[in-house]
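Worked Example 4.2. Consider the chain below.
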Amino acid sequence: MILAVFAPLLIGAKAVFFGDLQVDRGVRLVLKGRDPSVLLTSTQSIRDEADFALVNLESPLCDSTLPAIPKRYSLRSDGSLAKTLAKAKFTHAILANNHSLDRGVAGLAQTLRALHEAQISPVGASLSGDPCKPALLTKGADTIAVLALVVLPGIDSRHLCADASRVQAHLQTLRSRQIPSIVSLHWGSEFSPGVDSQQIRLARTLVASGASALVGHHAHVVQQEVGVSPSIVEGIPVWYGLGNFIFDQWQPWTARAQVAQVTLDAGLWKWRTIELVRKGPWVKMVDSR
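Applying the procedure from the previous section yields the following C-alpha cells:
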C-alpha cells in the first residue's frame, strides 16, 4: 500500500478592499431594527477567502447624544456595528474620509474605542499620534503596508490623514524596507464615473513614491480612467473608485460596485477585481476578473 501525503497549499497574504459603508439614514429605515449583518452575508465568501478585509467606514460609531457638526450631510452609526463587521470578518476600517468627524473628536474617540473592542484596526485616523501611520498586514513571511489618505477640502489633518506629503514619506521608507504598500484614497468628484486630472497626477506621484497599489472611494460610483478597472500606472494597479458597498444612494447609476483583491505571495504581487451589483441596500457578487 502506498500512502500519499499532501502538504497544505500555502498562499501568501491576501487582502480585499470594499468601498463606502454606512448604515444610517435610509439604510437604517430599511433595516427596521434588524442587525446590519443581513446586508453582509451575500459577500461573505469574499472575506472568507482573504486574510484581511478592509472597508471604508463612512460614519462615526458613536452615541446619538453627541451633537453633529454643522454640515450638509452628517452620518452616524451605532457602536455595535463594529462587532457586526468583526463577525463578518472585516479586519480593518478606513477612517480617512469626510465623515469620520461628523460627531467631532468625541465621536472619533468612540469610534476608535468600538473598533478596538471589536478587534478591528483603524487606518488613517488617530487622536494624538500620526494619523498617516501605516497599518502592517502580516501573514507568515509576507507583509503588506496599508495607508489611508483623504484628499478633500476642510479635513482636520490633526486627526485624519489628509497630508499627501506625509504619505509619500511613509511610502519611501517602506520602499527602502522592501515592504509593498497599498494606499486607500478618499478622493474625486461625487457621482462622476470619470477620473479628474488631480487624481491622475496624485496617482502618478504616489506610484513614483513607492505605492504598490492604489484603491479609491468617495465618488459613490465606480470610477475608471479608460473603461477598465483597475487602471495600470507604471505597472501598478489603480482602482480609482470602488463605488458604494452599503449605502443609501439607490439611483441606477450607483448600482455597480467593486471589490479590489490583492495578494502578496513570496514577493509576487497579484490582483483582481470582483464585480458587485447593488439593489437598494442589498448587494451581491456578479463575477470577477
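The chain has six helices and 16 strands. Residues 7 and 140 are 16 Å apart (CA to CA). Compare this with Example 4.1 before moving on.
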